[in-house]
Amino acid sequence: DTEVTQTPKHLVMGMTNKKSLKCEQHMGHRAMYWYKQKAKKPPELMFVYSYEKLSINESVPSRFSPECPNSSLLNLHLHALQPEDSALYLCASSQVPTVDNEQFFGPGTRLTVL
Amino acid sequence: QKEVEQNSGPLSVPEGAIASLNCTYSDRGSQSFFWYRQYSGKSPELIMFIYSNGDKEDGRFTAQLNKASQYVSLLIRDSQPSDSATYLCAVIPNTGNQFYFGTGTSLTVIP
Questions:
Q1: What pLDDT is attached to residue B96?
Q2: Cα B35 from Cα A100, distance rounded (Å)
Q3: Are strands A10-13 and A109-113 parallel, antiparallel or unpaired?
Q4: Nearest beta carbon to residue A97 from set B43, B94, B96
Q5: Helix, strand, or coil (residue A85)
Q6: Which 3 state secondary structure label does DSSP give A61?
Q7: What is the pLDDT confidence band of residue A2, given thresholds at 50, 70 and 90?
Q8: H-type helices in chain B, by residue range?
Q9: DSSP label at A97?
Q10: How many Å lie between the alpha carbon of B102 and the closest alpha carbon of chain A?
Q11: Per-residue model confidence (pLDDT) at position B107
Q12: Which of A:26-65 have CB within 8 Å of B?
């Protein structure tokens, strides 16, 4: 299995809702990442998990809460989002977070906040 | 600030021509360089990576790295309409713990 999967593909939520995004990989990768991408902009790093531990949080608001239950799974819990949080949320993984490891991206979840 | 810059384009080339995409970076300690292709509404997909100075070829794609001048480029030979996409340059700094993406260059190959 050489892919990163993400569910759901699309999500529409209100500002008072609580929802979660899910990411899974079975490549034995030990680093996983969450990115946010707005239209016509590059991916913007949100979080990095290395060996199931949060290693980087790029000053992301607390309404986004990441979770890494095991080495294959990464969740992003969403609560009280704002309309400006509407974006494509990308998950990626790499073998380990070192200088020579490419990241493989999932297909993304298109999030719309009403 | 680890900046990565690309010409946003759009870059238009006729089918069969060579497309040249450029990327400069500010962190001299950067170690690894990646080119991703992203079709509209899709996720980035890896095209090539390069770590050492010089050229690296893979099919119609050639990556060129010049660490002294702090630039990396991607050449696409015999461009096809299916190459029309946004190309993202990504750099890993010396700390090795995350990518820094450039703003991307939009390429259109005209049939």
A1: 66
A2: 13
A3: parallel
A4: B96
A5: helix
A6: coil
A7: low
A8: none
A9: S
A10: 7
A11: 96
A12: 33, 41-43, 45, 48, 50, 55-56
Looking at chain A, the whole-number percentage of residues with pLDDT higher than 90 is 82
Q: Which residue of A has its CA nearest to B35?
A: A102
- B58 Cβ under 8 Å from any chain A Cβ: no
CB-based contact (8 Å) between B31 and chain A? yes
Q: List the structure tokens of B86.
A: 């946004």
**Is residue A11 within 8 Å of residue A113, measured between CB atoms?**
no
B17 contact partners, CB below 8 Å, separation of at least 6: B79, B109
Q: CB distance from B34 to chain A under 8 Å?
A: yes
Q: Which residues of chain B have pLDDT under 50?
A: none
DSSP-derived 3-state class of residue B81:
helix
Do B43 and A100 count as a contact with CB atoms less than 8 A apart? no
Residue of A nearest to B89 (CA): A42
> pLDDT of A49-105, one tens digit each?
999 999 888 889 999 999 999 999 999 999 999 999 999 999 999 988 776 788 999
Determine the residue of chain B that is closest to A99 in CA distance.
B96
Q: How many residues does chain B have?
A: 111
> How far apart (Å, rounded) are the C-alpha atoms in residues A86 and A89?
9
Residue A42 confidence (pLDDT): 93
